Amino acid sequence: MDPILVRIGPFAIRWYGVLIVAGALIAGYIAALEARRKGDDAERVWDGLAVVLITGLIGARLYHVISSPTGSIGWEYYRRHPLAIIAFWQGGFAGLGIYGAVAGGALGLLAFTYWNKLPFLRWADSAAPGLVLAQAIGRWGNYINQELYGYPTTLPWGITIDAAHRIPPYDNLALYPLDTRFHPAFLYESLWNLVCFAALMILVRRYGDRLLEGDVFTAYFIVYPVGRFFIEALRPDAWKVASIPVAQIIAVVCIAGAGTTLWYRHRVATKASEPSEGEAEPRP
Q: What is the mean pLDDT of the chain?
């Protein structure tokens, strides 16, 4: 499938960009529904979406720039060619990192809520389910670009990759002919993101009365990294430090930090709701 949807003179509209925008709009729609359900002004979602999208793209690009992925361009390349960091006309910002996108988007939302005097955690909760659904949609851009594939496999759902899109050593057609199949890592992550979306929506709708503001947003940093940790082990292009994929390190830090945060906040909230010593408990 051609990664370019439409070419207009020197400019091209790529499927990857279209899917990212489509995912952002759907995420905005889900966030608006959540905001309206909680009695908030849903129009605020669309006011802040542009800010979050811009800062998210900046964060995603910076994460890619500072990384050193196997068989792909990274910091060593951009250090020598700094203009390529912003050269969107040379491939439509080929190279984005989801952890950078989440960090950048969160900072954008923080700035937007601070400027408009809105509670950050409340609006982050509204955004979290739509965010992971947008990730599920955006991952199909990796399929079109023939990237984010795993190691060779004999499984029936394995996918073939053109020689031009292979990283070493899989570009050696004598060892890995064109009919070699690879794990569709992008598909695994897309499906996991759909599971995360369902889990967060169930959490919101069934257990909303037990949640504190910020719980849904914090839960995102547990459910998504769990899947990413295992999927990253299938990627031959993973950015590694001391032979450990950086995304796995980030996943462990996120899970530990978010899990501790949830435990501590609810422990404090439970203690605060308990009657103090000598205070009579309310009658049922």
A: 90
